[in-house]
């Protein structure tokens, strides 16, 4: 693809601007660890919310989502429940408040707040740090795979290298360059740099999304979409099977559906809901989302930040996704048909940009998508070093070092994490395989221990440690034993092994001391199975008001999931001209928004 001088200038200008911004805020960020990793808890919640939305607008995920919408139609709106995407609703409704009340720097430090600083607490502290680092390695490999496929289509230069031991494809060279630039500005500016650049990135991405939506709306009619897709493609709901047959439309898509393992959508949905409840109740994993929550000034603002993330992210993102999907269906299907079985569906997004976006806007859109990648990647490499420096080096090796020393080690930790993650990226097979492994296998080992830590007083540090160990081992070794099984179907097995480790470790050792448990319960005030501790807290402080809002929180979670789903499907209905369904969905959006305002927003407390 030959970019115009204007397009190239926009992209290069954006890259230079982000690097300069990182250096500009580096003095403020390097003041101390609190400033570097949490922005000193002085960044407004609405900026953190836009930053979080930008961080979730990653290019690899966008490419994957365009692909599944192309293949599965409206039913693809259910497939991101693999993560599950509605874990953010749990965070919005109650988990952000519980988490922020701790006042800690990282998720691993929160574990010490929950389990204390004795042997069990220290073991649990170490294992969650290990999990945080492993998950970052997986995501870096995921980003590496996505940005390389994206960049090679648009940038005209051949950057392949074949010099003895150093052999790189153009995809790999582009990925390395973009990752190096992102790492540079993130390391220098810390959380200030991440949030500042991500707010700018959010503005660019939102403009780009509406540009794509307008282009698709003016160039594709509802009749053209209906002619390009098989029966059932425009239907949101389904029976036990996916019931999509692309024969005669684009036969190779049938092979993609078979390879994905999403054909039995009913069974898949049951598995996703089972996994989703436990994974969501576990709370945010120790990465960028948790860092945003901990960065907010107050607990109620942490909840507002999480709600804004959903509102700001889903409608514009799916407007772009739907725009590219319908343009590709109508205008690129004949070309895909000629490719036969050799279609790389993960290139649908880049090809659509190349064909349908006019010069000038191409530069803006590519800068926006590049911004989406850089924002997500930056968020991860800002969060991860905190675990190595604050939770290992500072806690166990050198607790009395200067702030300048800790910041320098944070720089070094960032470089090491990126370097190791990139090694994994060279061996990644596809975005889809990485997505399924991260969402289904790795998080399967996380869910049991991290759900119990909130709701069960007897659960202790040893239980957490052995539950996480069992989950990580199961997530590593079970999927290779069943290579033909979609990873989410293995989640119950991994979860059961992890749960067994939790229970054995807990009952084989004594509970945490009363002081630790009472401090955690009184400060966090969660609902759940806390009766023995609640009685002791009330005896010591009769003015304490326990949390009895489980019913309201459960109601708000259900409403929030419907609210989030309406933001996903509205732009799709808009671009495929399903006016009746669009009107119904918009009405559902208004009703759920009112319910959340009345029963969630108005009830928020610090």
From TrEMBL:
Keyword Metal-binding: no
Gene source species: Phaeodactylibacter xiamenensis
GO BP: proline transport
Transmembrane segments: 6-25, 45-72, 78-99, 123-144, 164-187, 199-217, 262-285, 306-332, 364-388, 409-428, 434-452, 464-482, 488-508, 554-576, 582-600
Key words of the record: Cell membrane, Ion transport, Membrane, Sodium, Sodium transport, Symport, Transmembrane, Transmembrane helix, Transport
Membrane topology classification: Multi-pass membrane protein
Reactions catalysed, as given in the entry: L-proline(in) + Na(+)(in) = L-proline(out) + Na(+)(out)
InterPro entries: Na/Glc_symporter_sf (IPR038377), Na/solute_symporter (IPR001734), Sodium:Solute_Symporter (IPR050277)
Location(s), subcellular: Cell membrane
Highest taxon, organism lineage: Bacteria
Entry GO MF terms: L-proline transmembrane transporter activity; proline:sodium symporter activity
Protein name in UniProt: Sodium:solute symporter
Similarity annotation: Belongs to the sodium:solute symporter (SSF) (TC 2.A.21) family.
Gene Ontology CC entries for this record: plasma membrane
PROSITE patterns assigned to the protein according to its UniProt record, in alphabetical order: NA_SOLUT_SYMP_3
Keyword Transmembrane helix set for record: yes
